Amino acid sequence: RVQRDLADIAEARERAGAQLGALPVRGQLDEARHHLAREVETLRAALAQARAARDGLRRESEARRRRLGDVANDLAAWRRRAESAERQIGQLAERLQGATEEQAELADRPAQLRTARDALADTIAAAEQARRAAADTLAGAEQTLVLAHRQARAAEGEAGSRRETRVRCEAAVEQAQERRSELAARIADELDCTPAAILGQAELAPGEALPSLAELEPRLERLRRERDQIGPVNLRADQEAEAIESQLGTMNAEREDLVAAIGKLRASIGALNREGRVRLTTAFDQVNQHFIALFARLFGGGRAYLALTESDDPLDAGLEIYASPPGKKLQMLSLLSGGEQALTALALIFAVFLVNPSPICVLDEVDAPLDDSNVLRFCDLLHDVAGETGTRFLVVTHHAVTMQHMDRLFGVTMGEAGVSQLVSVDLGRAPELLAAE
User: Fold this and answer.
1) Cα gap 376→77, rounded to integer Å
2) Are the beta carbons of 336 and 347 closer than 8 angstroms?
3) End-to-end CA distance of the chain
4) In terms of Cα–Cα distance, which of 351, 320, 322, 319 is closest to 336?
5) What pLDDT is attached to residue 24?
């Protein structure tokens, strides 16, 4: 076994010697090692560049994935718009069919209208004659009315003077009554009797002639002595009467001033009412003109107008909106559908803003009952009104089309449970951000 092992070892030694002889020298190995080290460094740099390129491709892939998601959302929105357009096309086709049927029904109307026109011409001629007669009657009535106004003004002047005379008479009667009351009180204080019992105390019969002054003086003297014996009297009665008369004069002067002030106040109220009517009528005409134009723009046609109702006085009249969307007859606002009422109300709001702009306007869910096409019209009108009046519009909405047309979006998000955060997006800088990506 030892010899076999020695033989195997000798054979292995020969093979190792042969392999050792086949190996290169040490200098060549060092040169090969340096060359491999340089290749490793080159491969490491290439690996770093490849990793950087991989990260860039990964980010670009993520951005494209997000863009694909946005494109999918936009595609879904456009599909919904296409479905809505198809529904509208169907409705328009139904309206066209109805209009065609109505046109067929109205084919015979021109002849009927010509007959009615001839009859109306005869009626108009008769009405013109009646109008002329009524105009003559009206002219006479107006002359009579002018004369009646003059007589009424004269009667009012006479009634005023009579009222003043009555007031003066009432004041004189009041003074006489006060004087009578004072005399009655004086008689009661001095003689302890009523005015009707004076003749009895004087021992005179009713209707009897009064005694002469010579006969009365001794008696008066005696009565005065008796009065003096009775006690002191009120010596300030005349002064008090003068003070009361002075107060009465002051009260009469104050009453005249009050009557004059009432007249001036009524004149001022009349002037204010006239000016208010003029201003209200002017503002109403301006708002009505803008409303007519905005209604036709929002509905793509049709007509509408505002009307004052219930009174000829603008200060007491009510307001009614009459609207006729395309394809419908003229009717009041309450008879329109929800979306039509919303568009009509928006036309009225913007008409008021065009007449009297405001720095800020808040619109809360005004586009909720509108479809996409009407929302687009609303957004275009909102942009034009904001540019014309300089008003900053704050729109509270959940409609995606409306949000796409805004300059800036504000929203609230909840990144964590119970923690709300305000988010602001400037859509005006969106193209810059997309270009930067």
Assistant:
1) 14
2) no
3) 80
4) 322
5) 60
